[in-house]
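2 proteins. here.
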Amino acid sequence: MTNAPIADRRSTLRTHHGDTFDDPYEWLREKESPEVVAHLEAENAHTDAETAHLAGLRETLFEEIKGRVQETDLSVPTRRGDWWYYSRTVEGAQYPIHCRAAADADDWTPPQLTPNVAVPGEVVLLDGNVEAEGHEFFSLGAFDTSDDATKLLWSTDFEGDEVYTIRVRDLTTGETLADEIPNTAGAFFTPDGSAILYTTRDDAWRPDTLWLHALGTPVSEDVQLFHEPDEKFWLGAGITRSRKYLVIGVGSSITSEEYLVDLAGPLTAEPRIVWPRAEGVEYSVEHAVVDGEDRLLILHNDDALDFELVSVAAEAPQGARRIILPHEPGRRLLGVDAFRDFATVEYRAEGLERVGLLDYTTDAVADIPFDEPLYSAGVSGNPEWHSPFLRLGYTSFVTPGTVYDLDLATKELLLRKRVTVLGGYDPTEYGQRRDWATADDGTRVPISLVWKKEFGAPGETPRPLHLYGYGSYEHSIDPGFSVARLSELDRGVVFAVAHVRGGGEMGRQWYEDGKLLHKRNTFTDFVASARHLVDTGVTAPDRLVAEGGSAGGLLMGAVTNLAPELFTGVLAAVPFVDALTTILDPSLPLTVIEWDEWGDPLHDADVYAYMKSYSPYENVRDGVQYPRILAVTSLNDTRVLYVEPAKWVARLREAGASDVLLKCEMVAGHGGVSGRYNSWRERAFELAWLLDTLGLAD
């Protein structure tokens, strides 16, 4: 074992609410300091040395992932106007190539595209590989074509900080126009294609302003259409599927407000408010035409914890509400998409996603049935106001990503594409099921498991187990297929997801019970899940590795402090482990917005004390036998700054943790490196460490 880098202790005092904390590693926050960069590079060198023996396994895993992927492939075309839009991937190329081909006016059945077979009339709109030339990092942001199909806009990020530059191309001539707009967030064309609507961020990285840019004019002349001054709210915008309204939405974690601009008039008209914001009330708006009348379908939680769906007159949205789907505890309404003749309703019940069709005439909702016990399904890729088909996405732990079209006349699900897994993958060789753990307060916590059957069912004998968790922002970790995960399952590892409170798997109350002053439930639920898996013989502490990323990385840091004896390894990706320091500083990106999720420790002494009691960095314990830890971060991450895992690793080493590694990507963002081959290599690195920790590296 090589000597790990030891960061100097340098006193930095932080005093709030009468409490003083001496932070010895805060100096690592100076990102531009040569000393800090040198320390991060030393951490990377140490990690490289400590994992050098896994080089062969990493290469094997990379080749396994690569060998299962059909590298030259095409997506299912999506109809928009007179064109079919799709993307293709090419063997050896990192990024997708975005294309289109002309559609027959009356044929809505997507063409069957075959890898390595030329598509008649194909037009390449944007080649990500060309865009990425000369850059270590590339991310495509906005991508939109004008309604008349003559112009393309796209935006790029070459740093990983999610700050994008917009460019425009004339698709009739192939010429890139002089219009170039830097420092943007989102963007899209106005319906007539003569202008661009885009958002920009403030110094705290909050999208706060909507602008109108007329093509061919200087950016300095762009018109500000809307500004949200409240630093707790972020801004977004879009055009309804009907192309009737521009919708401007502002929202915090718990409150939202939306405005309409009728596209029949000038875009500079004063936006019309739908419902005035009320603390704790969230809502979203869709435009529908019912019996010839413009209506707004509004999904809201005003005195409806799991949301209710109502209809209001578009001209008088604050008038009478007609209830379409009343609030039903345990049925969490997630979203509505309005089309010319019907709407779709996506909701969650008993921990699973459901999709239903809403009949405008009867208000009845007919569910679309799926036959696996665990799955994920949703409406995806339906830009047209009227189509004979509804596009759906589907997957499960054992079923690769699948695209269906629902024939709206016959209600038949038509399989358009299932991701090809090379190498003879057979889904019947794998099993999936749901277990339930009991938390300290008696709450039943769902756990999803997937395994390869040849090694026996979980519980027959203790097996190596990879336990994943998240548990924040009402984000659900739903069943999904992973090519990379097969490399674990085929070596006998059981993969499991602990659906802890703070996520949204079991409805809005599940989220409420895992945030603010209930945040500890997220951590104790994960510990209870791990103990359940041990107590039922599914695994054992010396065969259990935990993983989580971002807010799930906070979960990893917290459970490592709470129950280090339960885990042999912990993989923490871009981990939010210095939570209190970050949430105390309103100058940092997104901090003020985050107060709705974590509480406001700057102004509330109780929140400060509560967060200090669980923040992983401040609660590292001296003299404890910690599991092996791998922390992965990115220098340019704007969501969870690299300094958080850097400080955490330094404190763990100071406390005596003997096997702690930090891997910092020096050119990447919150999502890690860019490019599919780079991403596969990054995952192969993590999986090699995980398998080594489980004793399966040979």
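next one coming up
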Amino acid sequence: MSILETKISPSSATFQRNKEAMLTLLARVNQVESDTRAVSAAAKPRFDKRKQLLPVDRIALLLDRGAPFLELASLAGYAMKPAGADGRLTAGGGLLAGIGFVSGVRCMVVVSDSGIDAGAFQPKGLEKLLRAQEIALQNKLPFVQLIESAGGNLLNYRVENFVDGGEKYRNLALLSAAGLPVVTVTHGPSTAGGAYQTGLSDYVILVRGRSKAFLAGPSLLKAATGEIATEEELGGAEMHSSISGLGDYLAEDDRDAIRIAREIMDSLQWDADRAAVSRPAVKPPRFDGEDLLGVMPLDYKTPVDMKEVIARLVDDSDFREFGAQYGSATVCGHARIDGHAVGIITNNGPIDPAGASKTTHFIQACCQSGTPLLYLNNTTGFMVGRAFEEAGSIKHGSKMIQAITNANVPQLTVFCGASFGAGHYAMCGRAFKPRLCFSWPNAKTAVMGPEQAAETMVTVARAKLERAGKAIDEARMDALRKQIIDNFEQQMDVFATSARLLDDGVIDPRDTRAVLALALAVCAEERRRTTRPMQFSVARP
């Protein structure tokens, strides 16, 4: 055993300042999520009149009571469209998504938030859906979707959204062909291209009097062909269940439809061949997870010993460090989280050539033993300068990136602090496809620090003026510096990055161990799951 010790004093002024700052950021995250739920809930009278359930009630009925649910990308699209009449800024991209249990089977669940803009597709909502499908494919998760969408808002039409949107249909076909059941409840409209979300499902449940699926609605049909038909005649639930064959089950209302969806997952016995896996008794960390509120300073330039974070995440605070004396600013080592073995990589400073070389070795060793990797990202990037270039910074950094790219074990990322430059890539940033990646509220992501970017551009501007023999206007240089700093700062915090789906969601630091335990369980279950891939997806009759 190699038990970590702590040097943190929760009663210190520094700890308390960090904690108060973190709690302020968490309150802002919670407020955004609360505002979004409130806007959706405001549609309740309209849903009650139609005898429908709100999206949040639908997902609550679908999921197993008391089982964990990991919501994803709750800040998607935040501040990327105007506030409502009440001044609230909504987020989520018009979708609720996450990993949860349906009749005892761990699934990816996606629900149209039709309480907001009638569930119309938003650009970041499309990205969120594609990410949910990607996670389902990677982790062998059945895909359950509750659809009710007005389709795309034609007033905001963008050709790239139309073209890129085809990927969501391709992914549904890939899920089915991979042996992953796609179960769909169509609670309301599923029109035009959206009809294929229903049509590309393996099991389709329609709701009498509410579900509508057609390639062209009555208005478009009349404009295109002159034919006149009602919505029910053209694409109602009864027609599709009895004539077209699109619907496999006809439900009486939302509750009945969700009951059928749960019964489908139960009757498939999809995980019946999964071997029971016994795990040793788990010892919790020796230090309080509450302390994670005060570990990280808001100033990313302030050094942090990330072993203090590890000590509050891993079982029994037991962490066996790898290569502790070599490239010591990059920390690697073995531990367990809720009984799951994991290799941890984190940063106590910029990445130097030795640290990159050590990490490459560690990643390859974890691949050899089949041990998942966890990156606790807190770095301002790679060390620069003549000495580091001579020591092979590019060469060893490239090897580290190659190892991350080609690792054949699950990789998880948590952005705990700074994540700058090539260090973001080398610590398994989003572009390197971690199975799941989350941010703490204080995390910052950028190509470099704002001050460094500003000084770089000011230096270039000065040199250009000097070459031209022109006078240097210091006021203009100051204005340029401020412009660059403001531009970077507006894009580097989680309210900007998570809104753009550059992570899978913002989490409370205190929940990190629970979130990672769930994520590692998903990865472990994926390895055990037996699927029956086919050449094609299941076709409708």
